[in-house]
Write a structure and sequence with these properties.
single chain, 155 residues, alpha+beta, Trna Endonuclease, Chain: A, domain 1, 5-stranded mixed beta sheet, 8 strands
Length: 155
């Protein structure tokens, strides 16, 4: 059994992934904030200088062909979808290969709302347009951007 399969629920696995993200960000000397409870759309706050970014953390374990499917929708029990007024950045963790993608929320929630996407941390995709998220692989520099800078990525 793989370590991430030992969790009793997806919520427990999600909490573990959030902790992994916070540890990675803190190890890169970012100030990490965790909102109390589950009432916010974002999972983690990141302070960098005068910036405060709201990060929603996601994970993927399901390999499909050459990639891993990662969903960018709220938990099935939530009634509202994410909005750019609530989230600045998605942090997607591909658990089996220990790879992070830091994707501006404007890319996923912009004019063409994406409910999810394939990520290719192991084998590059055959179709060229599938490379669009590889520029966000291990893109920890995104945590240094302002909200307005991140919002421009989706245009």
């Amino acid at each position: 059994m793989k370590p991430w399969e030992r969790f009793g629920s997806l919520k427990e696995r999600g909490e573990w992934v959030e902790l992994r993200f916070m540890a990675e960000a803190a190890g890169r000397l970012f100030a990490v904030c965790k909102p109390w409870g589950d009432c916010r759309a974002y999972d983690v706050g990141i302070e960098h200088g005068s910036n405060f970014l709201r990060v929603q953390v996601k994970s993927a374990t399901c390999r499909k062909g050459c990639g891993y499917w990662c969903g960018f929708t709220p938990h099935w029990g939530k009634k509202q979808d994410y909005s750019l007024k609530q989230i600045d950045l998605f942090a997607a963790y591909v658990i089996p290969v220990d790879v992070w993608y830091l994707i501006p929320a404007s890319v996923m929630l912009g004019a063409r709302r994406r409910k999810g996407t394939m990520l290719y941390p192991v084998v590059l995709p055959v179709r060229k347009n599938s490379f669009r998220y590889e520029c966000y692989r291990e893109a920890w520099r995104m945590l240094t951007k302002s909200r307005s800078e991140l919002a421009r990525y989706g245009r």
